[in-house]
Amino acid sequence: MRDVTIVKRYAEALFEVAENRDIVEIVKAELHTAKQVAQNDAAFLRYLSEPKISLDKKKALIETSFAAGSIEIRNTLKLLLDAGRISSIPQVADVFQTLYDEKQGTAQATVYSVRALSEAEKKTVAATFAKKLDKKAVSIDNKIDPTLLGGLKVRIGNTIYDSSIKNQLTRIERNLVNVSK
Predict the structure, then answer these.
(1) DSSP labels, 87-146
(2) What are the extents of the domains in the chain?
(3) Engineered SS bond to 27: which of 18, 89, 140, 179, CB 3.0-4.6 Å?
(4) Are 136 and 126 in contact (CB under 8 A)?
(5) pLDDT band at residue 180, thresholds of 50, 70 and 90?
(6) Is the pLDDT confidence value at 14 over 80?
């Protein structure tokens, strides 16, 4: 719980700075890039986490790796490095995205389905959940999950809406067991 609160503070501080300087879109994109690097380049994080390497060398790597980016991103990464939380880059990016979405009146949804959804189906799901959540729009990230059998499972933030056939069968089974007792 404490880690979540700390990560949220970094994201909120960065968001506030970006808003004050009117560069929220730029910082969001750069933070997404930093998240991708942290998730896809294990050597990068290993280097930054190595206790035998001096802090100055690690900061120099951040400076050169993100030289094309904003000073706000480089400074945030250095702050995370100083605090021993450099592995929290993806979480900071996620919280920043949530703050951005709240400000824009939008939401991010991960939709799990047995097959890839068509654009029309994505639009229908997005419109349905935008209305349900009272949001301007919902952005859909479709993931294939063959274990669902059919239907959809939608995750928005920490909430999961499960209308999958697998879940419906589980509920029927539970009801039958409860009735037979």
Answers:
(1) GGHHHHHHHHHHHHHHHHTEEEEEEEESSPPPHHHHHHHHHHHHHHHT-SEEEEEEEE-G
(2) 2-101, 105-180
(3) 18
(4) no
(5) low
(6) yes
Do residues 152 and 128 touch, judged by C-beta distance below 8 A?
Answer: no
Quote the pTM value.
0.75
For the record, the structure tokens of 120 come out as 């029309």
- Asked whether the beta carbons of 18 and 27 are under 8 A apart, the reply is yes
Alpha helices by DSSP H, listed for 21-88, are: 24-40, 42-49, 55-65, 71-82
Pair 47, 58: CB distance under 8 Å: yes
Do strands 152-156 and 106-113 pair parallel, antiparallel, or not at all (unpaired)?
antiparallel
Model pLDDT for residues 150-166, shown as the tens digit of each residue: 889 999 888 898 888 87
Report the C-alpha gap between 112 and 143 in whole angstroms: 5
Residues 75-133 have pLDDT tens digits of: 999 999 999 999 999 999 999 999 999 898 998 899 999 999 999 999 999 999 999 99
- CATH topology assigned to domain 2-101: Peroxidase; domain 1 (1.10.520)
- Strand order of the sheet with strand 106-113? 137-144, 106-113, 152-156, 159-162
